[in-house]
């Protein structure tokens, strides 16, 4: 793979929302979905696309048809940059929805790469400094720099992968940068495409054993604050035009409900902002100063010894528990029978 200097980022609605806003996207945000029932989808409509995170497994076969020559009107790029698959999935959905204001930078990126092969489009993403900087703003601080070595392959290595689902021209497509082209999921409309996406995602999940529960689904939807602001303004306008007491009471209740939802959204946005500040902050100098202060007070070594003892006690307790369970299982075995 080409391209260097991209960090891994967390699959989180607050992270993804700040990322797209930083590059100039307007009017949309990300929300996490914990269920794929109609009520969960209806709560967030309109939904423009879905991003699904799952554990990549080379042994799981995928027989869905891959359109190696592309599909009419579908923007698709290959993943050729390490650690960029989250941002690539985001960009792929955004640039397949002309009804979203993606901002000048993404608009120019699409215009510049139109007609290029998917591999070259993926390589060009590495040259898009605006989105690369926004992506890397979520890099975690590294206190030490080690000499870079060739990573060793291991059966225990785990890799997670992002794919996008988006409706284009009457069809639902799965956009997986590791494939040679978009995957045709099925026919759909802008009204029912979520019902078509649901079984496709459920099918992916069912391919894993019951022990694997690490999946994440994010929806790209309309900006909730803007949507609720419009709804509240509309209700207040109706209130000014009615004289019927019972109708006015209903409108007041509706306005109160919308205002409560709006307050919840503002609180959530503040939580996202606070969490993102913590993600980006470098705590290493503070930790070093704390350790230095404890050492000066002759408190560091006693705390280290205390931690070592606690760890040893925990290990001893675990071994004792294991031996007890082993002995208990042995005593539960049926006694050996002898000949009469």
Characterise this structure.
The chain is of the alpha+beta class and 340 residues long. It contains eleven helices and six strands. It folds into three domains: 13-139 and 158-222, Peptidase C12, ubiquitin carboxyl-terminal hydrolase (Ubiquitin C-terminal Hydrolase UCH-l3, 3-Layer(aba) Sandwich); 225-280; 286-324. Helix content is 49%, strand content 13%. The protein has a six-stranded antiparallel β-sheet, sandwiched between helices. The longest helix has 36 residues, at 245-280.
List the helices and strands and how they pair.
Elements (H helix, E strand, L loop, with lengths): L12 H10 L5 E6 L4 H7 L2 E10 L28 H10 L8 H11 L4 H8 L3 H8 L22 E10 L2 E5 L7 E5 L5 H14 L9 E7 L1 H18 L3 H36 L3 H13 L3 H32 L9
Antiparallel strand pairs: 1-6, 2-3, 2-6, 3-4, 4-5
Helix pairs in contact: 1-9, 8-9
Quantity of strands, as a count: 6
Helix-strand category: alpha+beta
* Shape field: globular
**For the record, what is the CATH homologous superfamily label of the largest domain?**
Peptidase C12, ubiquitin carboxyl-terminal hydrolase
What string gives the helices and strands in order?
Answer: HEHEHHHHEEEHEHHHH
Distance between the first and last residues' Cα: 74 Å
- The side-by-side strand order for the widest beta sheet comes to 1-6-2-3-4-5
Low-confidence stretches: 145-156, 333-340
Oligomer: single chain
Q: Count structural domains.
A: 3
Q: Please report which band the strand proportion falls in: under 5%, 5-15%, 15-25%, 25-35%, 35-45% or over 45%.
A: 5-15%
Q: What is the helix content?
A: 40-55%
CATH level-1 class of the largest domain:
Alpha Beta
């Amino acid at each position: 793979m080409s391209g260097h200097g991209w960090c891994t980022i967390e699959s989180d609605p607050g992270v993804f929302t700040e990322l797209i806003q930083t590059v100039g996207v307007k009017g949309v945000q990300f929300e996490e979905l914990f269920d794929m029932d109609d009520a969960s989808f209806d709560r967030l409509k309109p939904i423009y696309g879905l991003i699904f995170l799952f554990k990549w497994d080379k042994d799981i076969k995928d027989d869905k048809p891959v359109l190696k020559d592309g599909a009419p009107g579908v923007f698709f790029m290959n993943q050729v940059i390490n650690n960029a698959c989250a941002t690539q999935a985001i960009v792929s959905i955004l640039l397949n929805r002309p009804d979203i204001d993606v901002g000048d930078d993404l608009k120019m990126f699409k215009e510049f790469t139109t007609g290029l092969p998917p591999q070259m489009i993926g390589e060009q993403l590495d040259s898009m400094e605006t989105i690369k900087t926004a992506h890397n703003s979520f890099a975690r601080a590294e206190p030490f720099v080690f000499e870079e070595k060739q990573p060793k392959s291991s059966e225990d290595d785990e890799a997670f992968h992002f794919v996008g689902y988006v409706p284009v021209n009457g069809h639902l497509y799965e956009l997986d940068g590791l494939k040679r082209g978009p995957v045709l999921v099925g026919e759909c409309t802008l009204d029912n495409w979520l019902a078509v996406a649901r079984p496709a995602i459920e099918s992916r999940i069912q391919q894993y054993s019951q022990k694997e529960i690490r999946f994440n689904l994010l929806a790209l939807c309309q900006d909730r604050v803007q949507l609720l602001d419009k709804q509240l303004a509309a209700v207040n306008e109706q209130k000014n035009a009615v004289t019927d007491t019972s109708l006015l009471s209903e409108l007041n209740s509706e306005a109160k409900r919308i205002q409560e939802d709006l307050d919840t959204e503002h609180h959530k946005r503040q939580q996202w902002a606070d969490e993102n500040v913590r993600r980006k902050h470098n705590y290493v100098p503070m930790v070093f100063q704390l350790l230095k202060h404890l050492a000066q007070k002759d408190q560091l070594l006693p705390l280290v010894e205390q931690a070592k003892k606690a760890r040893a006690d925990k290990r001893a307790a675990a071994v004792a528990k294991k031996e007890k369970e082993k002995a208990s299982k042995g005593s539960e075995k049926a006694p050996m029978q002898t000949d009469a």
